[in-house]
Amino acid sequence: MLVWVLTVIKNNLSPCWRRFSVPLQTFCGGDLDTPIKVKCSDHDSDGSHDLIGVFETNLTQLQKALDGCPVEFECINPEKKQKKKSYKNSGVISIKSCKIETDYSFLDYVMGGCQINFTVGIDFTGSNGDPKSPDSLHYISPDGINEYLIAIWSVGSVVQDYDTDKLFPAFGFGAQVPPSWQVSHEFALNFNPNNPYCQGIQGIVDAYRQILPQIRLYGPTNFSPIINHVARFAAHSAQQRTASQYFVLLIITDGEITDLDQTRQAIVNASKLPMSIIIVGVGEADFKAMEFLDGDSGVLKSLTGEPAARDIVQFVPFRQFRNAPREALSQVVLAEVPKQLVSYYKLQGWPPMKLPEIKKM
Ligand SMILES: *[C@@H]1O[C@H](CO)[C@@H](O)[C@H](O)[C@H]1NC(C)=O
Ligand SMILES: *[C@@H]1O[C@H](CO)[C@@H](O)[C@H](O)[C@H]1NC(C)=O
C-alpha cells in the first residue's frame, strides 16, 4: 500500500525533503511494528525512474529520530549488491525527526483539568440610554429582564459547567462610578476591585441589578482596557506552560466602540494567549465594527499590520435570537470556543494535564 510520495527535488545529489504528516492509521495501520518500505529513485521525466535504493524500517525505529538526533538508513540497490562484492550502499537517508502527535479534543482538555476562567464585561455607556427609561437597553422590565441579563444567563449557564469554583469576575465599563465619579473602563460589578468575583451566574445578575442605579452611564466605549485586563491574567497563567486555564471574556455591548484601533491591538496581543472573546451585541445598532473585530473580512490585523495569531473573537448580534429559545443563543455564542481552545493548545504543543488512563489488556 502506498502511503506517501515525497516531492521530487531536481538537480541535487544531496536533497533535503520537507516534513510531512500523515494519519497514523494510514502510515502503519496504527501498529508501530508494521514494516515500512522506503524506495528512493532518480526522477525521469518520461516516467522511467531509476531505482537508487531501498530500505525497510518501522515506526518504532523511525521514532528514535528526534530533533538534533537523526536516524540513518543505508539505501541498498539489490541489483548492484548482487553484482559487486565490494558494494556497500547507494547513499544514506537520514530521518531528522519523527513524532507521533495526538489530536486532543475540547473534552480531553476539560477532563484533563483545564479550568475555564469566565469573565464578564458589561457596557455601561450613555448610548445605551437612561436605565430608568423603557427605551434604554439597560431598562429592566417589570418581569425583571433585559437583553443584557438574558445574554449573561444564556452564555453563563453553559460556561459555568466548565468552571469548578463557579466564581466569576464581572466588570463594567464606560460609566462614572462613585465615589470619585470618574469614568472607569474596568470597574468591578460588585464594587470590590480586590475581589471582583460574583457567586455563580445569579451573583453576576444580582451585582448588575444593584450597581445599575448607583452609576452614571457615560462614555467613551473603550473595549481595550477590559481585554488587556483579562489578557494580563491569561499571560500570567500561560507562563506555567500547561493546559491548566483558558480565559473566556464575554463582552455585552450596544456596539458603538470608540477605541477600535487599541482594541484591534489588544485582540492581536490576546491571540497569542489562552483566551477567547465573545461579543454579544444588544439593541439595534449597526454592528459593522463588531463584525470587523470578528475577522469576518479576513484575518484581523493591528494598525501596524500585525495579524492575529489565530481567530479568538466571536460576535453574535442578540437581535437574531430575540424570538429563539435561549439555548439557541448559547449554542451560537459558544460554538467557537472549543475549537479556539484546542487550536491554542495545539499551537503550543501542550497536551491535557491529565490523560485518560490507557487500559491494559
Ligand atoms: C523495525 O525496524 C528495524 C530497522 O529499521 C529493525 O531492526 C527491527 O527489527 C524492526 N522491528 C520489528 C518488530 O520488525
Ligand atoms: C480569572 O480572570 C480574572 C480576570 O478576568 C481574574 O480577576 C481572576 O483572578 C482569574 N481567576 C483565576 C482563578 O485565575
Automatic annotation (TrEMBL):
Gene Ontology cellular component terms for the protein in this record: cytoplasm; nucleus; plasma membrane
Subcellular localization, as worded in the UniProt entry: Cell membrane; Cytoplasm; Nucleus
Keyword Iron applies: no
Domain of life: Eukaryota
Gene3D superfamilies listed in its UniProt record: C2 domain, von Willebrand factor, type A domain
MF terms (GO), sorted A to Z: calcium-dependent phospholipid binding; metal ion binding
SMART domains documented for this protein: VWA
GO BP: any one term: positive regulation of tumor necrosis factor-mediated signaling pathway
InterPro entries from the UniProt entry: C2_dom (IPR000008), C2_domain_sf (IPR035892), C2B_Copine (IPR037768), Copine (IPR045052), Copine_C (IPR010734), VWF_A (IPR002035), vWFA_dom_sf (IPR036465)
Domain VWFA: 117-337
Keywords from the named record: Calcium, Cell membrane, Cytoplasm, Membrane, Metal-binding, Nucleus, Repeat
Family of this protein: Belongs to the copine family.
Protein name: Copine 1
Organism: Coturnix japonica (Japanese quail)
Gene responsible for this protein: CPNE1
